[in-house]
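dumping these here so i dont lose them again. two proteins, back to back, each one seq then structure tokens. dont judge the mess
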Amino acid sequence: MGNAKAVNTKTWQTEVMESQLPVFVDFWAEWCGPCRMVGPVVEELAGEYSGKVNFVKVNVDESGEVASKYNIFSIPTLAIFNKGEIIAQQVGAASKDSYKNMIENALKKI
């Protein structure tokens, strides 16, 4: 099982922007039903891509500055960052295969 790390405004810089690996970011909130459905899928993917992609979760209610910096208006939004830039993004709950395709396509660009 994976372990997506909770990231906030204070840890965003080191965990995402300065990461040597690409970072899959799950922008979510406690009250969001689709976000809760996506959570276990993100954890599974974190285990499958361990060592290749880091996985983090950003609670938009607690880290609004980060969410607004990247124009996150709908959640869940899942984005892949590489060297501080978004290289892939998907809004809304989707299947595990959909997220795997997003990750695989992003990794090909790096």
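---- next one ----
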Amino acid sequence: MSEELETRRLKREVLVRIIKAFMSDNYAENVRLIPYEMRPKGCEVPFRCCVYKERAVLRSRTIAGLGFAMEDDDEKTLLSDFAEKALKREHPEPEPLTVLQNACKGCPSSKVFGTELCQNCVAKPCMKACRFGAISNDGHRSVIDSEKCKKCGMCMAACPYRAIVKTIVPCEEACPVGAIAKGEDGLAHIDKDKCISCGKCVSACPFGAPHAKSQVIDILKNIKEGKEVIAMFAPALIGHLPCKPEQIQDAFLKIGFSAVYEVAQGADVTAKTEAKDFQRRPQRFPRRESSLRGLIPRFYP
């Protein structure tokens, strides 16, 4: 199983155990025991240096599964206390992403460098391609000055031997807005002012350090209290599960949701609403009336 799939499996197992704990008669205590049940004494340690490190990471995953940010964890609060706090919470926390610091590898910084594959060719295309004067030659190979290098990749594209490579930090490389980067401690931190909550860093990290804060307790609590809770699922879910849409709907209703809708239904409603708006616009914008009349019936009969 790949590392990415393994991190997903761990997240899913933690959430399943949280749900089972909520359904049990001893919710808070069963939540506290999750890391110990997943990594009991004497078990084989599959990922970390020791069972204690494994339990620490699982504790962090459980805190995120309860809907809390790891950045606010003082390491003294028991999981059972977090479980109780989750029940008392009125609204989920605004920022959906957090970083499990003890799961972060602290990857080396991204850089471009020349490898031993460099043939010290006469043409020196890499040096000519660099617009920042970051590449020199030591008589044996091309050398890149990391302080001058802008990581533009022009030298990589110019080298006929592909002897210049770039190392990346997966979470940083995946983020489209530069919201995640290493802090002074060398670990990943999310800038909440820049973050757009796209979740790409969560999918990219092979250690599962960036983590989504679950709202499963908030949902279960509202269902238990008899409140109206509506489930909306993506159409892609149908392709992932070996069942029909009707079966998925029935499953959500049996769980306790009041109603079930496919997310695409929202797009249909938006399209119909915009079509009606476009039909009204020719009266306000006569110059575009002819073009709109030709388009609207075709797409929105």
